[in-house]
Write a structure and sequence with these properties.
Layout lengths: L4 H22 L4 H5 L2 H9 L17 E4 L5 H11 L39 H15 L5 E6 L6 H12 L5 E7 L2 E2 L2 E2 H4 L5 H7 L3 E6 L3 H12 L6 E6 L7 H7 L11 H13 L2
Parallel strand pairs: 1-2, 2-3, 3-7, 6-7
Antiparallel strand pairs: 4-5
Helix pairs in contact: 1-3, 1-4, 1-11, 3-4, 3-9, 5-6
């Protein structure tokens, strides 16, 4: 293992708590969409998979992480703060006037952001560009892109998937955060894209399907992706929206809980549930 699993699990908990605190302080945001992705983002930044230097955010040889589902910016900001890109107390400025921590990642405002995302469907195309650039420049860096499952309804995703397969971009990994919900309801009801792994495989990708809220499975999948040659890799990460506070969301009667912060009166309960989790 590249890092102690228990340490990674504790970091994921800390990141979830920062997501909750920052979005409640902002009075807006997408905590549930962010919390489903905590294990993957934690493993990438702290599991030994990504080479980066917070003091040199534009270091040419850095590995790239592109959060295509840009509305989940709080998970990225929390990981970046944990990694030392900016002071952790700055997380409480999320979505406030003048803060570089905008509602969606803005690469022109916050060093360490690789792409301005949030208009869904574009991140994988940007990732293909980075992966091709690495090949042209003779660089060994890897590019990781996280998409949402609802986002797969965007046609540009599949143009990018076809291009990555054509060029055999084995330095590119796409992680689909398959949390089964999008803004207007269950992803399967809005537009059922199953089998997701089968669709990527048809475009020439190596595919894996994992429990994306199990840190051990996440680490194993990322290790396996590094060993794939001649193909890009798609990891279909089966997760739960709002992972860490599922009992509270059930009590509140809203398993989707899309695009709204936890109310201040419920914040302590949400944090306690995260802290008590495995």
């Amino acid at each position: 293992m590249p890092a102690n699993l228990d340490e990674l699990k504790q970091r994921a908990k800390a990141i979830r708590i920062d997501i909750l605190k920052s979005t409640t302080e902002a009075g807006s945001g997408h905590p549930s969409s962010s919390m489903s992705a905590a294990e993957v983002v934690t493993a990438l930044y702290f599991g030994g998979f990504m080479n980066y230097d917070p003091k040199q955010p534009r270091w040419p040889d850095r590995d790239r992480f592109i959060l295509s589902k840009g509305h989940a910016a709080p998970v990225l900001y929390a990981a970046m703060a944990e990694a030392g890109y900016f002071p952790k107390d700055q997380l409480m400025t999320l979505r406030k006037l003048g803060s570089p921590l905008e509602g969606h990642p803005n690469m022109n405002r916050l060093p360490g952001i690789e792409a301005s995302t949030g208009s869904l469907g574009q991140g994988l195309s940007i990732g293909v560009g980075h992966a091709l650039a690495a090949r042209v420049d003779g660089k060994s860096y890897r590019t990781y892109v996280m998409t949402g499952d609802g986002e797969l309804g965007q046609g540009q995703i599949w143009e990018a998937a076809a291009s990555a397969g054509k060029y055999k971009l084995d330095n590119l990994t796409c992680i689909v955060d398959r949390n089964h919900f999008q803004q207007t309801g269950a992803a399967e009801d809005v537009l059922n894209m199953d089998p997701i792994d089968g669709k990527f495989a048809a475009f020439g990708w190596h595919t894996q399907v994992i429990n994306g809220n199990d840190m051990g499975e996440v680490v194993t999948a990322l290790e396996r992706a590094r060993g794939v040659k001649g193909q890009p890799t798609c990891i279909v990460s089966l997760t739960h929206k709002g992972q860490g506070m599922l009992k509270l969301l059930e009590k509140l009667g809203d398993p989707n809980f899309h695009g709204k912060p936890m109310k201040a009166k419920d914040l302590d309960a949400a944090i306690a549930e995260v802290e008590a989790g495995a």
